Amino acid sequence: MVRHGKKRIRFGSEGKKKIPDFVDPNKDPRSYLRRYIAEQTYKDWFDRNYPDYTIYEAVGLSELDFQEIKRNFLLNKRKLL
Predict the structure, then answer these.
(1) Which is nearest to 60 in space by CA: 31, 18, 26?
(2) Which of 35, 38, 64, 74 is 20 to 30 A away from residue 9, measured at CA?
(3) Domain annotation covers residue 5
(4) How far apart are CA 57 and CA 10, in angstroms?
(5) Residue 58 included in any domain
(6) Contacts of 38 (CB under 8 A, 6+ apart)
(7) Taking the model in full, what pTM does it have?
């Protein structure tokens, strides 16, 4: 913890965004990332409706998770071509 004036800030807790209502807690969050990567209309919808979020923040995952899923998606797509 760091003390700034009279306010205490716990490392790792600042800047954590609330999970938006469209995210189903019973669904695999990676499925949202795969859909965002694969479907342009879904990506456009998300970007338009949640401009203050990245897709991985919205579903509670990290940028590394997103990069891994994107890399795997692109590799699989190339194999199909």
Answers:
(1) 18
(2) 64
(3) no
(4) 19
(5) yes
(6) 73
(7) 0.74
Is 12's pLDDT higher than 70? Answer: no
Question: Confidence class of residue 76 from pLDDT cuts 50, 70 and 90?
Answer: confident
Which residues make Cβ contacts (< 8 Å) with residue 32, sequence separation at least 6? Answer: 23, 55, 58, 59
pLDDT(7) > 50? no
- Domains: count for the chain: 1
Within-domain flag for 15: no
- pLDDT of 37-67, one tens digit each? 999 999 999 999 999 999 999 999 999 999 9
d(CA 75, CA 61): 21
Q: Is residue 1 part of a domain?
A: no
Give phi and psi for 53, each to the nearest 5: -120, 150
Reference 32, options 20, 48, 15; nearest CA is 20
Bridge partners, residue 7, by sequence? 4
